[in-house]
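Re: [ENG-882] Designed sequences occasionally contain unexpected residues at chain ends

Forwarding the minimal case from QA. Structure tokens:
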């Protein structure tokens, strides 16, 4: 996965819990939310991004779009 250590994540004041294995430690990464239009013009870098929290136990991925 990533080189970042797994940690507990709080979203809107609540601790994130994996719905698959109920683990509470996650690794964090960012992903681009690509669109066809910007990809067509080779402007993928201009797309919005999402934050992913990946369960350190089973690999389940949460996606959150932050403005």
């Amino acid at each position: 996965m990533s080189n970042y250590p797994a940690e507990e994540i709080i979203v809107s004041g609540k601790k994130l819990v994996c719905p698959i294995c109920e683990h509470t430690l996650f690794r964090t990464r960012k992903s681009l939310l690509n669109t066809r239009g910007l990809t067509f013009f080779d402007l993928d870098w201009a797309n919005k991004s999402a934050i992913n929290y990946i369960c350190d136990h089973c690999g389940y991925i949460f996606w959150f779009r932050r403005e």
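QA comment: On inspection the terminal residues look reasonable. The chain has a mean pLDDT of 84. Proposing we downgrade this to a documentation issue.
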